[in-house]
Amino acid sequence: MCVGAHRWRRDLEEKQIIEYFFAARTEEAFCALFEAVCARVRRYFLLRGLDAMTAEELTQNVFVKIYQQAGELREADHFYGWLFAIARNEMISFWRREQSRLEKIEFEPLSEQHADCLMIEPEVMPAMRLMDLLRALEPAERDLILLRFVEGLSYEELAVALKLPLGTIKWRIFNARKKLSRIIGASSACQVRQRIN
């Protein structure tokens, strides 16, 4: 089976599970929903630089809120927008708690004997390079790019998630892509100059 067909089938299965959850609202339906979309939520947090344990904890928090707030969503078609709005709010709350906690901690310089712990495996480099490029974007731009092109949300789902007009979403994604293209171009030119020198 080709990759596109596999994704299409998976998306269709997810849509059926989402509709089942909103029709039945049973524990069994919730478990099926969790199994179907849990990885997408976890990936959302991992792509924002969180470690696996924190991503797992925040994913659990998101699904607790989904279970508690399921009655608020009227249309299953808006599920992904609603889901990632909850995930985004959970992320914002997490960063606020972390910022407050980190303000109380004093950091010591890294000793030379521990510097070798910072070695990076070669297969991780392309993903790290992409994350570095994405960090050059504003957080709101980075969220739009990741939700649209990594998570595959439609423009309409993004409009629901961010509570913005559809035209605004399209314009912001257009601008974020243009900015990312400039960043990639500048980064590539810099690498070429370094290789020449």
Account of the 3D structure:
Helix 3 (52-69) packs across helix 4 (79-102). Helices cover 74% and strands 0% of the residues. With 197 residues, it is mainly alpha-helical. The termini are far apart. The chain is globular and about 50 Å long. It has helices spanning 3-24, 27-46, 52-69, 79-102, 125-135, 139-150, 155-162, 166-196. The protein has one domain (14-103, 124-194): Winged helix-like DNA-binding domain superfamily/Winged helix DNA-binding domain (Arc Repressor Mutant, subunit A), CATH 1.10.10. The longest helix is centred in the C-terminal third of the chain and has 31 residues, at 166-196. It has eight helices and no strands.
Percent in strands: under 5%
Q: Could you give the distance between the termini?
A: 47 Å
Please estimate the helix content.
over 70%
Q: Work out the count of structural domains.
A: 1
SSE blueprint and pairings:
Elements: H1 3-24, H2 27-46, H3 52-69, H4 79-102, H5 125-135, H6 139-150, H7 155-162, H8 166-196
Helix pairs in contact: 1-2, 2-3, 3-4, 4-7, 6-8, 7-8
Keywords:
Arc Repressor Mutant, subunit A; 197 residues; disordered N terminus; mainly alpha; single chain
In short:
This protein has 197 residues and is mainly α.
